[in-house]
Design goal:
This protein has one domain. The protein is built from 15 helices and no strands. InterPro entries: Bact_Transport_Assoc (IPR052529), DUF418 (IPR007349). It comes from Planomonospora parontospora subsp. parontospora.
């Protein structure tokens, strides 16, 4: 990768489409936690933790779409650098502070698996690395992924030396029942569940997803500085190789990851190491496939891009709608629906948010969350409406 001269920043339709696509995968990955409170607290004894639907989600979705989103965060940071110029430092600090505050509120009130606080913290780290060369950023990202994979392999070796230390946890049905009762109780019961569970799961998100997210931030930074998504002709000749690596290597590795997670012990740790290396390959294949589809059928981008333009609003909106369906904020259906019905709810939520995003942007430049975050970032009170 080589850095290229950057003209003034502009909105890139394809990036919005990819971001809108990634939102669908994130919804599918997250909704099982809303539908299965036992799984959310790490028990995994309720319907969404097993069966063919869970296997498909684990193989094709889990850890694949936050990878895309993290890459796009790094790429979008380069667009902000072009737009903000000398003000990038102060504005990015405010933006990350705003993201962090939004994430804390989101985590305690709606979704215990919130990732915005992690992105805010890593965004500040990315800011300190903004002058890094693209090639160096790629090398640093590869080192992060490699080191994390080696750590998982070392832990797997330790388990093989002492198998008794990796005994499968015994399902606590009483804890599962309590979690479901709190989630499906009244709003105060659900808030109690959030307060009890969010700090623990936030630590898991930071430790489990933080290194990979940072690596993808760096890959996105390198790609943005090299203008890869804006100059597709520079990498079009690599498409067959990306697809072969993604579907030929990344997909079998994802199958192994799912199998190993069901097996437990050292195999599960090896699966995590393999997944660290291979999930970016499958994610890249998803993106290249989508971009080819968008090129052939522009209406696909037209459907997805509005959600991508309002990604933060959609991310929060997913949690609001999922809460209204599964928690005491609304219908309290957690633990009541079979996995295939949960996927149906996800499809309805996604379609509804796609339609709402398109409708909103007919009269607004940004989503409501984006508007508030931008006003805080720029310290401006400009009106929301575009006309």
């Amino acid at each position: 990768m080589t850095q290229t001269a950057a003209p003034a920043s502009r909105r890139i339709h394809e990036i919005d489409a990819v971001r809108g696509f990634a939102l669908g995968g994130i919804l599918v990955a997250n909704i099982g936690f809303f539908a299965d409170p036992g799984y959310a607290v790490g028990i995994g004894t309720l319907p969404m933790s097993e069966g063919p639907v869970a296997l498909v989600v684990s193989t094709l979705v889990l850890t694949k779409f936050y990878v895309i989103f993290s890459f796009l965060f790094g790429y979008s940071f380069t667009l902000q650098m072009r737009s903000w110029g000398e003000k990038v430092k102060s504005r990015m600090v405010r933006r990350c502070l705003g993201l962090f505050a939004l994430g804390v509120a989101h985590g305690f009130l709606l979704w215990i698996g919130d990732i915005l606080t992690l992105y805010a913290a890593l965004g500040l780290l990315l800011l300190t690395m903004r002058d890094i060369r693209p090639r160096t950023a790629v090398k640093a990202g590869c080192w992060i992924i490699g080191v994390m994979s080696v750590i998982w392999l070392v832990l797997a070796g330790l388990v093989l030396l002492d198998p008794s230390g990796a005994a499968a946890p015994v399902a606590d049905t009483a804890a599962a029942a309590r979690a479901e009762a709190l989630v499906t109780g009244g709003p105060l019961d659900f808030l109690r569940f959030q307060v009890e569970t969010y700090p623990m799961l936030a630590a898991f998100v930071w430790l489990g997803q933080g290194p990979m997210a940072m690596a993808l931030f760096l890959f996105g930074l390198a790609a943005g500085k090299s203008r890869l998504l804006e100059e597709r002709e520079r990498w079009a000749h690599l498409v067959p190789r990306i697809l072969w690596l993604g579907y030929g290597v990344g997909l079998p590795a994802a199958v192994f990851f799912t199998w190993s997670s069901q097996t437990g012990g050292a195999a599960e740790l090896v699966g995590l190491a393999v997944n660290n290396l291979a999930s970016p390959l499958l994610s890249a294949a998803y993106v290249v496939t989508l971009l080819a589809l968008v090129k052939r059928f522009p209406a696909v981008a037209g459907a997805l891009a509005p959600a991508g333009r309002t990604a933060a609003s959609n991310y929060i909106g997913q949690s609001v709608l999922a809460c209204l369906v599964f928690t005491g904020y609304g219908l309290a259906l957690a633990g009541e629906l079979p996995p295939i019905a949960v996927m149906g709810v996800a499809a309805v939520i996604y379609a509804l948010l796609l339609a709402l995003s398109a409708w909103w942007l007919r009269s607004h430049r940004q989503g409501p969350v984006e508007w508030a975050l931008r006003r805080f970032t720029l310290l401006s009170t400009a009106p929301r409406r575009s006309r």
